[in-house]
């Protein structure tokens, strides 16, 4: 999903959900607007789904094949899986061509130096690891007005610069959409009508080192 599509998503959410729930708005967010910032909800519990609205069998049927246990959970996954192995740097796939084709024998002043195969391989592996931008997954509680209420979000590793010399950082490059159910109310108090609707929720799926 590009930046324009992400912004469109926010506009649709604000318009569609903000008509009757006037407290709903989005906070400013860095990193090209992903991950999705927290929604500021109307604190009135009158806008919360009731116990009879949270029947798992009914909601599973309504969500259908969109239920993805890899990215969503009905119960708190923090208790079940506190630490995600995805938070560790994993180099997947072949080495990027821009690293593999680096000429380490040519100096900035036009001279040439001799670099052994083993030393070259180790340096390129280190460079690949240093500039790699993994997606760090963490579980987030969306609240009772989403079902399932827990989502596994992607974030770009940001503890250090990803370039050598420093200056660049890991930023979102691609995203995927997951469909959740959102409790949506029209009207106010006793005049309101509430139901579950399907909404798309973008999740960062790839990060790249960029300015």
From TrEMBL:
GO terms for cellular component: extracellular space. It is found in: Secreted. GO terms for biological process: cartilage development; dorsal/ventral pattern formation; negative regulation of BMP signaling pathway; negative regulation of cell differentiation; osteoblast differentiation. Residues 30-52 are annotated as: Disordered. Its main location: secreted. InterPro entries: Cystine-knot_cytokine, Noggin. The keyword Signal applies. SUPFAM superfamilies: Cystine-knot cytokines. Keywords: Chondrogenesis, Developmental protein, Differentiation, Disulfide bond, Secreted, Signal. Residues 1-20 form the signal peptide. The keyword Nuclease does not apply. Disulfide bonds join 133-170, 156-207, 162-209, 185-194. Belongs to the noggin family. Homodimer. This is Noggin.
